Amino acid sequence: MYEGTDLEEYMAEIRQSVCAHCIERPPGGPPCAPLGKRCGIELNLGQLVDSVHEVHSTAIDPYIEKFHEDVCTFCPNRPTNQCPCPLEYLLTLAVQAIETVDERRAERSHKSKTPEPFQR
């Protein structure tokens, strides 16, 4: 599972490309928790990233199923009136954001492994 600093890049990308579309985002958010909104992304980011990484599909349905199995089932918001959370309608954007970070990381990793040209 991803934790701590491993998740910072994912959270930044999600805040930029997903949170902007959230109709429940409080004024001044994100982050939303300090503003009194128990955000499903903020609560479950590690599980969300893991869930997306376990699916490889061009269709969204497998991601939705995996999200409900792995994230929703254990979400602390589930027994509250804050369920379903905005991830229900923003999941496609969240998957795209996570995959964008993965692509960036793969590109950086590839570049760091590419040997420098020989110079005399």
Describe the protein in words.
By secondary structure, the protein is mainly alpha-helical. It has one domain. It contains four helices and no strands. Helix 2 packs across helix 3 (61-70) and helix 2 (40-53) crosses helix 4 (87-113). 26% of the residues are buried. The model has no long low-confidence stretch (mean pLDDT 90).
Overall outline: elongated
Number of helices: 4
**How would you state the average pLDDT, rounded?**
90
The total count of strands amounts to 0
State the helicity in percent bands. 40-55%
What about the largest sheet?
A: none
The stretches of 5 or more residues where confidence is low (pLDDT under 50) are: none
Which percent band covers the strand fraction? under 5%
Distance linking N and C termini: 45 Å
How many domains, in number, for the residues? Answer: 1
* Rg (CA only): 17 Å
Structural class: mainly alpha
The succession of helices and strands, N to C, reads HHHH
Write the layout of secondary structure elements.
Layout: H1 5-17, H2 40-53, H3 61-70, H4 87-113
Helix pairs in contact: 1-4, 2-3, 2-4
How would you sum up this structure in a few lines?
The protein is mainly α and 120 residues long. It contains 4 helices and no strands.
Considering the chains and any ligands shown, give keywords for the structure.
120 residues, mainly alpha, 4 helices, 0% strand
